[in-house]
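Every protein is a chain of amino acids, and every chain bends into a shape of its own. The fold becomes a row of whole numbers, each drawn from a learned catalogue of backbone shapes. The protein below has been through that process, and both of its lines are reproduced in full.
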Amino acid sequence: MLNHPLQLTTVQGFLKAGLPWLRRIKAIVRRRLSYICTTLPGRITLGVAIALMAISMMIPIPGANNLPTSNRHFCNCL
């Protein structure tokens, strides 16, 4: 990429084609639930939710977190 610089007309073409799409997306997308991220109780709630999800992912579930090669050892015994 460094050895092959882009032509100005190529970049302008990409921008000309992409900007209408970005404007459409920007018209649809808006900020949601901003009070959760800006207030202290909201941030605490978010932190607790993330911590609970992380802890639930660490809980060992029998038969769910086996390595794919662990079944190979059982086949060699037969």
In short: The chain has a mean pLDDT of 80. The two ends are 55 Å apart (CA to CA). The chain has four helices and no strands.
